Amino acid sequence: xxxxxxxxxxxxxxxxxxxxxxxxxxxxxxxxxxxxxxxxxxxxxxxxxxxxxxxxxxxxxxxxxxxxxxxxxxxxxxxxxxxxxxxxxxxxxxxxxxxxxxxxxxxxxxxxxxxxxxxxxxxxxxxxxxxxxxxxxxxxxxxxxxxxxxxxxxxxxxxxxxxxxxxxxxxxxxxxxxxxxxxxxxxxxxxxxxxxxxxxxxxxxxxxxxxxxxxxxxxxxxxxxxxxxxxxxxxxxxxxxxxxxxxxxxxxxxxxxxxxxxxxxxxxxxxxxxxxxxxxxxxxxxxxxxxxxxxxxxxxxxxxxxxxxxxxxxxxxxxxxxxxxxxxxxxxxxxxxxxxxxxxxxxxxxxxxxxxxxxxxxxxxxxxxxxxxxxxxxxxxxxxxxxxxxxxxxxxxxxxxxxxxxxxxxxxxxx
Length: 415
Ligand code: CA
Known about the structure:
The chain folds into 2 domains: 23-116, SH3 type barrels (Roll), CATH 2.30.30; 124-412, Fumarylacetoacetase-like, C-terminal domain (Fumarylacetoacetate hydrolase, domain 2, Alpha-Beta Complex), CATH 3.90.850. Helices cover 15% and strands 27% of the residues. The protein has helices at residues 46-51, 72-75, 79-94, 131-141, 237-243, 266-269, 325-333, 361-364; strands spanning 23-27, 34-39, 42-45, 107-109, 114-116, 124-127, 158-160, 166-168, 173-174, 177-180, 189-192, 196-197, 200-206, 225-232, 235-236, 257-259, 264-265, 273-274, 294-295, 298-304, 310-317, 344-346, 372-373, 379-380, 388-397, 400-412. The strands form 7 sheets. Strands 6, 7, 8, 13, 14, 16, 17 and 22 form an 8-stranded mixed β-sheet that branches. A hairpin with a 6-residue loop joins strand 1 and strand 2 (34-39). The longest helix is centred in the first third of the chain and has 16 residues, at 79-94. Residues 126, 199, 201, 233, 348-349 line the site of calcium ion.
């Protein structure tokens, strides 16, 4: 990769290097929500950058898209334009003679801004694409000898989730209440969830729609993916267990999902492509893809109790995924289903082979049969009230780092 300099100083461990340039929506006390990019520990106001004429050479760019409270219209400009915006910003931040240096007020300290959900999510789909996670769940709840259901290696299994309850990092969630069937009881009770869990996931954001009735061929799928965020698919295991037969996840899932605020583009992740696992048996022709279609993104999960001290409970990697994003999107649309700009498609829990890489408390505690000890000495099988869950993710190769920041949310007691 070509080396780029940057006149904004940042630590080499910083997620938001000159190679990244992720897009997000921020506001300050005096500035309404608008488009920004993250560089080092600063946020650059793109509405302001556009106003000063720095994007004037980019055709088809309506400056007003940067003053909007979601990225949808910006993303909908299309990759040729959004790519130009990103590379223009890279040039403005690396050139020693950059005129952008004359506008220090366009930069805000990241700690001083409020971040918002980056896109209006019209539809949200959640896959189930980690073979290790699907196998673990199958072993726990069905048959250890036949942990994977017969369809699993043939289709990227998924379900349609709830878009309205997707929230941004920093917002708290409330422990849900619902129907739970106690062991040995003859009828369910209505009570707060006792087995509250996180799911370590990543989600991709649709950047280009397809028309209803027109599948996206697998070789075109990347044109339709704008970028990615970290994603915590909160799960109420006891509610889920009682309700999921026969139609699958419902209230055990739709009370909240948390997303990280900075959307890292596929272009920024290009350098970190790796081969995915070998798929056996061979997949259907519409799911066949060539080359390196997984991404080497290190993922970490932390839990902090009342003392706010983070303890790492999982260390996984996005590259473990059995089904990749191209296959997920090709499968999602193979029946003619249309996707729209801003839709979020989440990966499913990202677990690795090793116990230390399991992406949910369900797996880490093996359905509540073992405890995890946090730094403060307290133990967890599932999440307690006032726990804070933080997920972090970053790709790193040859000194180039592209990170996602974090998605952090606190669990409030049931109402
Ligand atoms: Ca999930």
